[in-house]
Amino acid sequence: MKIGLLGCGNIGHIIARHTGSFAITAVYDEVYAKASEIAAISGATAYRDFAAFVASDLDIVVEAASVSAVKLFAEEVISHNKDIVIMSVGALTDAAFRDAIRGRAREHGKKIYIPSGAIFGLDNLKIGRISTIRRLLLRTTKSPASLGIDTKERRMIFSGKANECIKAFPRNVNVSVAMSLAAGMDTDVELFVDPAVDRNVHELFIEGDFGETYIKVTNYQSPDNPATSYLAALSILSLLEKIDDPIVVGT
Question: Among the options 13, 18, 80, 202, which is catalytic?
């Protein structure tokens, strides 16, 4: 499988160092020097021009750039008959954009993949589309420094729906958007800052006809970038490694 990387930051470097059943053949970043770095690691071709990148011999494009990059490039990727993995899932809170790329993917027979990111249990939330989920809550706790907030005590800084939270904190709550997409309903979000924590903590509370579930995930930082969850990067690798496997595990 031939992979094109859209965005050549920390996650791109992790993917480039762990290729297994796939090969990175093309890389693109608005900062060409970043693309060149990953090209040197992976043996891929670095492109200065997005049009040339997306027209190259690729099976799937992995986005690890930004919400704005998804909105700018995703539809063009699909129109060039490539599947796409979207890491910056916050872009899909825009219903019109989400419907547009879903329609384009159906038109071209392509897939849009959303990795599980910085949490566990995302697959099982799909039951919400066939059975009632009465409570779907994500409680996230971050250090004040990670959000640029000065506080000496734990406090809640947001309580509301995922589609509202992502507007206020677009770089920090992709997890809640992924949960909403999986369950087919908007996730309730509580966002806390706590000077006592040095890692992101995600707590998932799910209740429904199936029973009750509580999941707590404390994320370790990526070895080369404290702003990136290592689990989020690994979730992309996991998806890519099994994408062509005829045995599908999970819902």
Answer: 202
